[in-house]
């Protein structure tokens, strides 16, 4: 499938705001869950830091709500698809996935993912990421990338579980939350090489 940027953008604007998988419900950012998410993320700061850039300092509910509304606006414009992960069994908030940094001419995007420690080792984040990759390819995306801190080996393993290939290292590519230069490892999968 080959799409020009305009039709693809319309498809991205129509991204589902809620998806039910076997063990998860993926939902776009909801203002009424801001307090719960703030509390859960703050409780997990030692686990998330240093890999999740926006966890350098404890979050406050007002800022989480502000970011929630910004994310919903970007979602509706087709620029940033983000889904929060909720357990179907317990209703607990577990983390998030997103598709961002779109280049509609290729078309390509980047996949982002993170999870709270209570969900580790259960394959829940993998399940959510696989859905996102499959959904993006179904929209006509040709390439999906994951940029991972070179020190974050758990993130590397996730990309590999999704069938992504390690393409190389971008040395001194960005700064981490402490201002130190970091290397980024690039993983990618193309529609032609996706899982069968």
Automatic annotation (TrEMBL):
Q: Which SUPFAM superfamilies match?
A: Acyl-CoA N-acyltransferases (Nat) (SSF55729)
* Domain N-acetyltransferase per the UniProt entry, residue ranges: 36-192
**Protein name, UniProt field:** GNAT family N-acetyltransferase
Its source organism is Piscinibacterium candidicorallinum
Question: Molecular function terms in GO for this entry?
Answer: acyltransferase activity
Q: Give the matching InterPro entries.
A: Acyl_CoA_acyltransferase, GNAT_dom, Ribosomal_N-acetyltransferase
Q: Which domain of life is it from?
A: Bacteria
Known EC number: 2.3.-.-
Query: What does UniProt give as the signal peptide span?
Result: none
